[in-house]
Amino acid sequence: RMAVVVFDPVLFKQGYPEFAGVADAVLMQYFAQAEQFVDNTDGSRVVNETERLILLSLLVAHIARLRQNAAANGGGLVGRVSSATEGSVSVSADYGQIAYGQAWYVQTQYGAEYWAMTAKYRTFRYRR
Questions:
Q1: What is the C-alpha separation between 126 and 52, in angstroms, rounded?
Q2: Contact by Cβ (8 Å): 79, 93
Q3: Judging by beta carbons within 10 Å of its beta carbon (0-12, 13-18, 19+), is residue 111 exposed, middle or buried?
Q4: pLDDT for 64-76, tens place per residue?
Q5: What is the pTM of this model?
């Protein structure tokens, strides 16, 4: 029987010190949001609890970074900056060549790492 992973904001901030200024209650909310992506129950496909904690933590960091980016730029820029000019300020962003469903994740290094680590869960599995 698998255990449910419990989120510890203090431990999270030790692993991700760049989010030390984010309130614990807010991080708990981000964790609840991350659980919408990774099943944190006995029925989870991610059987190993350590792996599940890593994946959920990456998603918490991803969500936190997205929120910080949205606050910094008014929430309008999505994707990576593909070109920028200075006179009359012009910025464009794109995702580049990405797989279906990958766009939301590759907006941050944490999401991109999560995407890479979960590749094994997006492959077809044949059972007899």
A1: 23
A2: yes
A3: buried
A4: 999 998 888 665 5
A5: 0.80
